[in-house]
Every structure is written in C-alpha cells, then in structure tokens.
C-alpha cells in the first residue's frame, strides 16, 4: 500500500469513528439521516452510510420502514423478550403519528380495548400498549396514564392526540390490520422472544473488558513467560497496534525459542475466533473439534472484545441446562406427549418412549410426516443420552429408513439404543414402532458434549 493510500485509509478510519462518536452524542429518540449528517460533518454520504450500518449493528440506531432512522438506547441482552414501541410498529406494519422520541421505550404488556372506557383504564398503566379502534377518548386517556397507543383498522388519531403523544414522548401508531390480527402478530413475536431468551450466547457469559492478559506485536518470548508467571495462564491472544487479534501464543509455541524472539515469529497465526452473538453450544463444539482451550471474542473488525475458556463455556452450558423452560420450540411441542415408559432400574438398551401422533403432526397425505418421525428419533436418542449419561450430543449424520406410513392417532414407541458410546463420539440406532410393528429406523452418529 502506498503512502498516499495509507493516508487516505487513515482519514477514512478517522471520519468513520467521528461519525460514530457524533451519533453516540445524540439524544435518544433523535431522528437522523445520512444526508443530514454528511452535510453537518462535511463527510461524503458513502462514508456516512457505512457508519450508519455499523451503528445499526451495534444497537445505536434503528431504521424502520415509514419511520426512518432513529437514535436508540442500546438494548440489553437480558431484556431481549421485551418489545419496544418501534419494534411493534415494524411488526404490525404500522405508521407513526406522534411520540417519535418514545420509540425506544419498552412495553411490558398490551391491553385490548374491547370494553367500556372506565373498565379499560383499570388495566392500563405506565409501559403498556393499548390496542383499540377509532375511540379518540380512549387514545388520550391511555397516553395520560403512560401507555402507548396502537389504533387498528387504519384509522388516524386526532391532531390533539398527536400533540399529546409528542408532549409525553409516547408513540401513537396506526395499523391497517384488525385488532385480533394485531394481537396475534404481537403474541407470536413475544413468544418467539421467550424462546430466544433461553438460548445462551457468548455475550451472556463474557465480560467485554478483559483485555489486560494479552501479548502485543513487538513483545518477546521473555515477556510471555513473565506474563504467564504473573497471571497463571499459559496462552494469550496476540494483538496488533489496532487491537486486532492476529495470533495466539501458548507455552508450546514458546518452548525452545530464545527469550529475545518477538512473539509474532513463534505465535500461531490466523487463530480461530468467535463473534459475541454465537451460541455457547456452537462455541463448545468449535473448541472441542479444534482442541483449543481459549477462544478470543472479536468484533467485525477482529478487534478483541474478551476471551472465554472451555471451562467457562461448559459451566455456562451446565447452568443453562438447569434453567426452567420459558417457551416451547416446535421440537419441544412434538416431543411433549412422549414419556419414558421404562421401569425404574431399566438398562439403557431397553429404554422406550411412548406417545401418540396427533392430527397436527400429519403431513400432506394425512399420515405422520417424515419430518416428525425424524425429529422423534433424534429426540429419543438425545433424551436417552441425557437420562443415562447426563450428557448431550451434536448430530453429525443420520441415515433414515421409512418402512411404511404411520396413521394419525397411532400410539408410537420410540426405542433408542447406543451401539458405540465414548467420551467424544457416539453411534446410535433408533426405531419407531406403531401397532403394526416397525415403522421407521435411523442410524445416527454424533459428537458428544462434555458432561453437564
């Protein structure tokens, strides 16, 4: 890269950071645009647009159809199940009439306005959302009690109500959908968020400030040994001058090297890293498959955010496995009616799960769908491993044989059996029987996850 190119690159970086700093300084709820900021900062619209995309990914701004781009409060992961009024507008394809600065506020419940006004008001409090038709008096009363308003049927609020919404910083929205449809759309979204909340991500277990225990370019093997003695650790990320992860150095890498040797000459280059929003299970799989004990967590530019150890990942999985269910996935719903029918003390080779095929489980031809049978066999194998070995697995391959169709309302027996079972891998056979005998069979190979 020429000196001119380097200078241009550094100027772009400076302008990029200048834009992000400017956005961070804006008041929550401020509506912004690429053109306005480009003019304000005398920076090209292309550079501003790129910064906008990063700001959106970082949770600093949110762009919504019919509303535009708005400065928002960075949302906490532990509040992922709470909808903001801005997200409600997007879900119901709503139009915002007033209360722009309140779009980032979260709501804890919604109230259907299908009763007398006085009775309705008893259920409305601060942070709720009133879903109602063209009832102007209800709109104003709800705003006065600290609630947002969603008008259904495509009706518009009065000018006085819009002024009140702006004054109180509470959004008033309108959707073309009817009340039942809107409520169904919001219910589905809130339920999906309950499910997402129980999926643990790396950002849930990593404190993104742990950057002291690292090596930087120019440091020596002697420095590595000093840091190792000081911290008690034997592996560290290696960072360049811009805090990007460019390598990993361990005691094995440093062994035999002169203590004056710089770390970049002995480090492992291009180390495996992870983004903060990947699942803990995925990280566990990567660390086990690659044989690594320390995983750097980086942003999109490979700048170090923190590190996670294999033990921290396994402890997190152990904790997650003990948490109560907060929402059922389709797999949970399909398996919900199946119970272990084995007697106490039964060996794992004869574990059997019994359940019935409901009409919702049927496929296009009115029989139990192939997807259902595959899911039941996987769930049967997984539950057997959990019950007998207190472990879990990640499926690698599955060969399935569908012997004959299974009628709805049939009682099924799911019979998993371990053919090979070691600390790292397993091979399992699963059969599904109905009243007429064998209906489906599968051979599974899987990678075992360390014990809970």
From TrEMBL:
<keyword id="KW-0129">CBS domain</keyword>
<feature type="domain" description="CBS">
    <location>
        <begin position="200"/>
        <end position="264"/>
    </location>
</feature>
<dbReference type="InterPro" id="IPR000644">
    <property type="entry name" value="CBS_dom"/>
</dbReference>
<dbReference type="InterPro" id="IPR036390">
    <property type="entry name" value="WH_DNA-bd_sf"/>
</dbReference>
<dbReference type="InterPro" id="IPR028979">
    <property type="entry name" value="Ser_kin/Pase_Hpr-like_N_sf"/>
</dbReference>
<dbReference type="InterPro" id="IPR006683">
    <property type="entry name" value="Thioestr_dom"/>
</dbReference>
<dbReference type="InterPro" id="IPR010766">
    <property type="entry name" value="DRTGG"/>
</dbReference>
<dbReference type="InterPro" id="IPR029069">
    <property type="entry name" value="HotDog_dom_sf"/>
</dbReference>
<dbReference type="Pfam" id="PF03061">
    <property type="entry name" value="4HBT"/>
</dbReference>
<dbReference type="InterPro" id="IPR046342">
    <property type="entry name" value="CBS_dom_sf"/>
</dbReference>
<protein>
    <submittedName>
        <fullName>DRTGG domain-containing protein</fullName>
    </submittedName>
</protein>
<dbReference type="InterPro" id="IPR036388">
    <property type="entry name" value="WH-like_DNA-bd_sf"/>
</dbReference>
<dbReference type="Pfam" id="PF07085">
    <property type="entry name" value="DRTGG"/>
</dbReference>
<feature type="domain" description="CBS">
    <location>
        <begin position="267"/>
        <end position="325"/>
    </location>
</feature>
<dbReference type="Pfam" id="PF00571">
    <property type="entry name" value="CBS"/>
</dbReference>
<dbReference type="InterPro" id="IPR051257">
    <property type="entry name" value="Diverse_CBS-Domain"/>
</dbReference>
